[in-house]
């Protein structure tokens, strides 16, 4: 099994070795990856951060709907 490698390291190595990844594309991919990590962290902290409440309504499956009780974070 190949060792784990970060996306940034992979992109840098591919750009350096083969030159097949343009610098602007590499930068764009790294920015998108950081944004995904930030969003993932914010979503995962939802219940633990005490920012989720209930909307006092149920969906068709009978599950209680959740709603945000704080203003959304802008990225």
Radius of gyration: 20 Å
Q: How many helical stretches?
A: 2
Largest β-sheet summary: 2 strands, antiparallel
Counting helices, strands and paired strands, the structural category is alpha+beta
Q: Residue ranges: pLDDT <50 for 5 or more in a row?
A: none
Which strands sit side by side, in order, in the main sheet? 1-2
Shape: elongated
Output the helix-strand order.
HHEE
Quick tags:
single chain, 75 residues, alpha+beta, elongated
General description of the model:
- The protein has a two-stranded antiparallel ribbon.
- The radius of gyration is 20 Å and the shape is elongated.
- With 75 residues, the chain is of the alpha+beta class.
- Helices cover 44% and strands 16% of the residues.
- Helix 1 (7-17) packs antiparallel against helix 2 (23-44).
- It has helices at residues 7-17, 23-44, and strands spanning 52-58, 64-68.
- The protein has a domain at 1-43.
- The chain contains 2 helices and 2 strands; from the N terminus they run ααββ.
- A hairpin with a 5-residue loop joins strand 1 and strand 2 (64-68).
